[in-house]
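Reminder to self: keep the SMILES exactly as supplied, no canonicalising. Ligand is guanosine-5'-triphosphate.
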Amino acid sequence: MKNKDKPVTVEEIQVLRNEILLMHESLAKDVISHAPLVKKVVDIFVDKGLDRKWVEKLLAPLVGSSFEEDEVMLVAYLLEELDSLLTVNEEAKKLDKRVHIIVGGTGIGKTSLVGKLGARYAYLLDKAYKVAFFNFDHHKVGAIEQLEHYADAMDIPIISLEDFVDNEYDIILVDTAGSTGDNLDELDSLMKIISDSTLYNIELSLVLSATSRVKDLNRIYNIYKALEINSFIFTKLDETYDISDMITFLIENEKPVTYLSIGQEIPEDLIVATKEYLLNKFMNEEDSE
Ligand SMILES: Nc1nc2c(ncn2[C@@H]2O[C@H](COP(=O)(O)OP(=O)(O)OP(=O)(O)O)[C@@H](O)[C@H]2O)c(=O)[nH]1
Ligand SMILES: [Mg+2]
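Structure tokens returned for the bound complex:
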């Protein structure tokens, strides 16, 4: 077979793609080096923690346009891009009947979140939902006590798996053991039981800390990906001024973020995630709460 007739392999395409990518990156850098104001705006966002290559690629096409001389417009353009890449899920006016399973690493704020969401759905919305807790945290000594404490204080029952089949509740909140993935099979079985024998929809939320670095966020997400995560919930936004890792993670992974935990107080330190809140916090740093 002549060389030119040989089919191109996947590996060769990959190599070409990487070369083109590298060319684009160095071109973007080069173009920007001739536009001082664009370079300044790139540096502002890199200082805020965003990836330099990503920012350069985004702003390079604006060199030579009327934006090039207008810092305010350049910043606005970048924020607009960030805004379009973030996905948030607003809380529905009427929530569907659901089992909401909360998973994530240890000590991230899962049980507190279950308490906060329980109080929110049972008492703080226009409609009072019938809420129950379920503890799937059977590995950890003391796990049930924390949930029991919230259950008593809020007058929300802790139910057993057998109670699910009665479909009696509007929302069942499931607290799970903080793990590095060793409970995935058990969680998978739990979800199968729920979908096979009850009328509840399943919402599976991965809880992540706003204080984690993007590498760690991705590592945890990769562990839980096997379970078809529906949404992210971030905790500990009060513990950091710099949420650039969280923002980078969210724009790389297209799942929506739904709630944000902004402190230890139950139930008040929980808010519905909005792009305004996230972008304000990202831009204002120490000025924001
Ligand atoms: N500052 C701050 N602390 C929080 C937040 N959410 C939870 N915490 C605290 O983090 C600690 C751990 O919270 P838990 O809810 O027990 O965390 P968990 O994920 O259930 O922990 P394990 O079950 O041990 O994996 C507690 O002291 C909480 O008060 C938050 O948004 N901000
Ligand atoms: Mg817990």
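Points to follow up:
The first helix runs from residue 10 to 33.
The CA atoms of residues 179 and 201 lie 24 Å apart.
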